[in-house]
Structure formats: C-alpha cells, structure tokens
Amino acid sequence: MTSSDKTVLNEEALRAIDGKVGAHIEGAHDGRGLRIGVACARFNGGITQRLLEGVFEAQARLGVDSQDLTVAWVPGAFELPLLAKKFATSGKFDAVLALGAVIRGDTGHYDFVAGECARGLQDVALATEMPIVFGVLTTNTVAQALERSESGPENKGAEALETAVEVVRVLRSAALQ
C-alpha cells in the first residue's frame, strides 16, 4: 500500500525509458524452478503465520512449486539474520524471505530489534549477493500489523515472495551477466 497515488510507478513513463538507454532491465514474476528459504519469527507468531499464508497464496500465481519452499522458525525477529545467512550460504536457495512482526511497545526495545533485524538482513544480502527480502512488519499497533497481514493482494508475505522472484530474475538477466 502506498501513501499516495503520486508515489505509484507510472507504467507509461517506465516504457519511455527504453528509448533513452542502452539496456532497461526489469524482473519477471516467473518463480518456476526457484528455491526459496523462508525464515519466520515465532514472536508475534500469529502475524508471522498470516504473512506465511500470504506466501502460500502467491506461490501458485508466481509458479513457485511448494516443494521448492523451505520454512524454518526462530524465536524472534532479532534472530532472523542468522537464519537468513544460513539459508543464503547453504547453496540450496535462490532467495530468502524473512517474515516477522515487531510492534512498538512502551519501551525502546522496538527500535533495537527492528533496526538490528533490518541491518542484519541487509548485511546478509550484501555479503552473499543473494536476495534477502525484508518481510518483517514494523508497526506502531497490532491493528496495523493485522491490516498488513490480511489475506489478499495487500498481504506483505505475498509481496515478499513477489519481490524475491523479481529480484532473482533481474540479477540473472542477460544484461547483468
């Protein structure tokens, strides 16, 4: 969900790029044959489960075979980067999704957990050159987390799988090889 219609990428403007550059690369949404590791956080696990259901809803649409998905659970969002790194360095996956929810509370704990989770996942992506998708909700309220994990096209778990497939396809494009 975007905050404004003005933030949406205009498809006509995107097509106009083709005549202005030597190569214009976009990722396809074809997940056939891709192996995806899904790192899930148990803390706020009801939200994580809803995000995971979003992954399952999107997988058929994207052509990802259920046998090519591996799901593993860790205690919380803080532990997701380590699991993502293990997935990424195993040689068994093309991309990793990190799913969880960090909901702001009355203390500063939120800032440390959310920030370090994001930094850790980014570090893994850069070190391994593998798509590590940040599917961790960072919300102010439980209601916001529930909204972003509802079944349907706005589910951030589904969006995470779409992102993974698209980034793998961009990175594998002939222009970047």
Automatic annotation (TrEMBL):
The keyword Transferase applies. Keywords: Riboflavin biosynthesis, Transferase. The keyword Transferase applies. This is 6,7-dimethyl-8-ribityllumazine synthase. It catalyses: (2S)-2-hydroxy-3-oxobutyl phosphate + 5-amino-6-(D-ribitylamino)uracil = 6,7-dimethyl-8-(1-D-ribityl)lumazine + phosphate + 2 H2O + H(+). One of its GO terms (molecular function) is 6,7-dimethyl-8-ribityllumazine synthase activity. Pfam families: DMRL_synthase. Pathway: Cofactor biosynthesis; riboflavin biosynthesis; riboflavin from 2-hydroxy-3-oxobutyl phosphate and 5-amino-6-(D-ribitylamino)uracil: step 1/2. InterPro entries: LS, LS/RS, LS/RS_sf. Belongs to the DMRL synthase family. Its EC number is 2.5.1.78. One of its GO terms (cellular component) is riboflavin synthase complex. It comes from freshwater metagenome. GO terms for biological process: riboflavin biosynthetic process.
